[in-house]
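Q: Structure for this?
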Amino acid sequence: MNKLPDKKNRVIMLADCQSFYTSVEKAAHPEYFDQPVVVAGDPARRSGIILAACPLAKKHGITTAERLGEALGKCPDLIVIRPRMQEYIRVSLEITAIMQTYTDLVEPYSIDEQFLDITGSQELFGPPEEIARSLQEKILKDTGIYIRVGISENKVLAKMACDNYAKKKPSGIWTLAANDIEAMLWPLPIHQMFMVGSRMTKHLTRMGIHTIGDLAKVPLSRLRAKWGVNGEVLWMIANGKDYSPVKPNTHNTQKGIGHQMTLPYDYCTLEEIRIPLLELTELVCQRTRRKGFMGYVVSVGCRGANFNKSTGFHRQKKLAEPTNLTSEVYQTVMSLFTKHWNGAPIRSIGVSLTDLVSDQIVQLDLFHDRERELALEKAADQIKLKYGNAAIMRASSLQAAGQARDRAQKIGGHYK
Amino acid sequence: MSKKLEGNGLFESSRMMLPEHKEAFLHHQERIIKQERPKLDTQELEYLSMMIAHSMQEQAPIVLTLFDEIENKQVTGTIIQIDPARRAVRLQQSEEKRWIPAADIIQASSQR
């Protein structure tokens, strides 16, 4: 197996959980151990798609993001489980905690991927692959989750080692040394590179760039001229260069508070759309108040229903005074929305409040009793905190277009 | 946008973190971030000595806040012995007696 070069280099891992949601469910339901299992959203709604499929289900040709109906067609005995997002978050953090017994440098990248810097852990716990095996065993034993580990000397290479090699090896562990990238990384097709999606693949293929190696050899100046910073980022990744730290406090920087939602059907009128906009605004303000902030900048965005022709906008406005009052933020949201919406059907919307400041300093307003309004909203917040977000809501949310009741049961658009 | 080449920018701009996951992670981190031992000034130390002496002489209940890297702890009882040599006080709790290193005491009050 490959060795990492000299000691002064960092040793970085990316650990990825195999079929995370279904693995959590299989650990909770041992009786499904040898059966094909999928986790799928509510079949009655647009979110009725496969969120995760276990390896046995994948053998039947079932893929993530396909419709539940299609999956059942391929495998009638399929076990279908409703998502439990809160539980997946809990297990993800349990895995974080296990990783933290090896190093304090653990950075979650998504619910099922975490970076580790184990440079300083080797004297205590042994060489990198031994640490990877030990992590794999311990996490499997404690949570029932099987992790795959990519090892290298920076995050970009660790990620690509995991996605392109560790996931495909029986051991689930792969080391990609920086001086092996010519042989290991460069022959791979360009779409297997980190940060290259389907659109970028099209652009690059049109430029005659088919492999990661092709991209690595393009003069940096050409990429920079074409895409600016993004071009430089691609070139760096192709050449295996990355200086990003594994930063556990990376999530501390609260730049803003925002929420977005996908609507159950396409909303076409302002009358309909204003209801979920108010609900989102309320949610954003509720969280902002709870954290003791006010925001200066209100942004609102929406995405059209037609995926082929992307429509929609994202606009923001800076207020004269910071606020966390639902009514004030909503006013700005609506004025931005009516100004920029072209009337095309809407599939998803988002609202956020940024440029946050502490709510301990308040501008007094002569003509407007903000204190009273704030007290009312805070009282509603307390009720929601204690009894859940569906305990008290605006009457408008009871209309057909309202989403608050549904959303109160969900995390990330899926059931808690 | 242009921060992708700085610090952790590449990963901060590309990650997929649910807001609820992020919050739970921050909460998890808060619990393991170790706090530093507070430095008490002479006045505070004098006050602590006074409260401890008072509890011993009057057999008055005392609540001591003990420093802990993760989370400070509170103990309630009566002081029954002061040992300057080992720099510790002995606390009589409802059932048991225990020695408490004086250095761990960061606060004392007569009630919770």
